[in-house]
């Protein structure tokens, strides 16, 4: 083990890419002739292929969920708090798979990859994909990896929505769904925030209707604003108060529009950094994917009817200070699951981190997460469940 | 196995759907799952107990009973169970109503405050009773609604709740001739199966 890598880390990981030749019919009516998915795996697939766990990522994350790409990498994968030996998603027991979703910008086919039909970058021509499309593409990834059934599909936020969709669309292929800080569909307020983020990008003069790559620029200001806005919705009022308060960077008011309060400087920093590693077209797509998610829509607006198809057992987790997808939204999911007679456990974790809490090492949260997955691992081991 | 759980288990039809209010560490639900093939959920407010339920593979929902059962549909469970919880809630009457709205039948167990030692301690000793089944002092007890078997049956009559089955036992959950003759005097724990009259 490299000296810089902690013992409970999956260590150095290398992404892999699979090419899918079979066309994928999308919800929007269009078809992707072929596509690539980049993914990472941690742990070992057992002989009966029964210990595979799929991690679904949220809006701005990717396939790099745990471990390090290089020994000198500053930060590990985005869910390193939860994935690794001895962690809730214990890689000593599970074979963990995480892919960058279609439309992403980290190596899977998306707006910043070449459209074979035109030999140009897709840009705005990349179709708007839905959670159902993603789940379908992930099912093909499972096929190729020789995984018939996931021991669990796990995700936070938009990732949790994918876990729900998996349970509805492929009931025989998922034993457990872990749905964290999610919602059964977006509220008008959620969509409103997404719309402001999109308008920030779309109205940036350097957006060039999504063809900014060809102009050698990026809609930096728009994407930055979108991210700043997003960040506010990821944090809670109490969390921001605790972290920044009204602290001034220079200890006094300057009567200027510079970044004076610590919170301003934080948001600007986050926005600026984001622009360097995320693609504006992907951001637009992912917010649409969120807006469109509505599994009840196919069942006469009856979420319980959707869940009646599912066979998986569910763990639903919410965080008290999350106002983006509040505990009330998780309870809607739980209610529908109870009405459908599905197995579900639900816990509301006390946390001041807002929506971002699902990524945080909150002891009670990790304890619940571990307890649930230890049970899953036990089922895998004994063949029970 | 706690004897009261065994008694409850015998009252429950195999394969039924159960809601356990204040399910604790999930002992009853795990027992009913294993013995009677029941499915269902426990409601619990304590996070440490919730984790114990999860470890036992019991469905548990984090919820405050005082907020009511509005998330549950009418008659959506065969049984709604409340073991030694009724005396510890604020809205006792409302919760009883909710039980029999959500469940076709309700099963309730509670410590009998009419037990002779309680009466003796209060009447002769002049202090709030502390007995095995009610082990707390008045200043630290979670039991805020203490009542007797007679009180409970009066309430049931008034509310039109049918008593379908009753069992009164001592602390070791045994019955006896004496208990059958003088339940409100000798009984420590009362178990009821209830329905809508």
What is the strand and helix layout of this fold?
The complex is a heterodimer of chains A (385) and B (197).
Chain A: E1 16-20, E2 24-25, E3 31-32, E4 35-42, E5 52-56, E6 83-84, E7 89-90, E8 95-99, E9 114-115, E10 120-121, H1 131-144, E11 152-156, H2 158-169, E12 176-180, H3 188-202, H4 220-234, H5 237-243, H6 262-277, H7 280-292, H8 303-308, E13 313-319, H9 327-339, E14 344-349, H10 363-382
Parallel strand pairs in A: 5-8, 5-11, 6-7, 11-12, 12-13, 13-14
Antiparallel strand pairs in A: 1-4, 2-3, 4-8, 9-10
Helix pairs in contact in A: 1-2, 3-4, 3-7, 4-6
Chain B: H1 3-11, E1 17-21, H2 27-36, E2 39-44, H3 47-55, E3 60-62, E4 77-83, H4 92-102, E5 103-111, H5 116-125, H6 149-159, E6 161-169, H7 177-181, H8 183-186, E7 189-196
Parallel strand pairs in B: 1-2, 1-4, 2-3, 4-5
Antiparallel strand pairs in B: 5-7, 6-7
Total E-strand runs of chain A? 14
| Cα radius of gyration of chain B in angstroms | 16 Å
Proportion of residues in β-strands of chain A: 15-25%
Note the overall shape of chain B.
globular
Question: Termini separation of chain A (Å)?
Answer: 36 Å
Uncertain runs of chain B are: none
Write a concise keyword list for the protein shown above:
heterodimer, A: 385 residues, alpha/beta, eight-stranded mixed β-sheet, two-stranded antiparallel sheet, 10 helices, globular, B: 197 residues, seven-stranded mixed β-sheet
Structural commentary:
The complex is a heterodimer of chains A (385) and B (197). Chain A is an alpha/beta fold and 385 residues long. Chain A has helices at 131-144, 158-169, 188-202, 220-234, 237-243, 262-277, 280-292, 303-308, 327-339, 363-382; strands at 16-20, 24-25, 31-32, 35-42, 52-56, 83-84, 89-90, 95-99, 114-115, 120-121, 152-156, 176-180, 313-319, 344-349. In chain A, the strands form four sheets. An eight-stranded mixed sheet of chain A has the order 1-4-8-5-11-12-13-14, sandwiched between helices. The longest helix of chain A is centred in the C-terminal third of the chain and has 20 residues, at 363-382. Chain B is α/β, with parallel strands linked by helices and 197 residues long. Chain B has a seven-stranded mixed sheet, sandwiched between helices. The two termini of chain B are 32 Å apart. Chains A and B meet through α9, β14 and α10 of A and α3 and β3 of B.
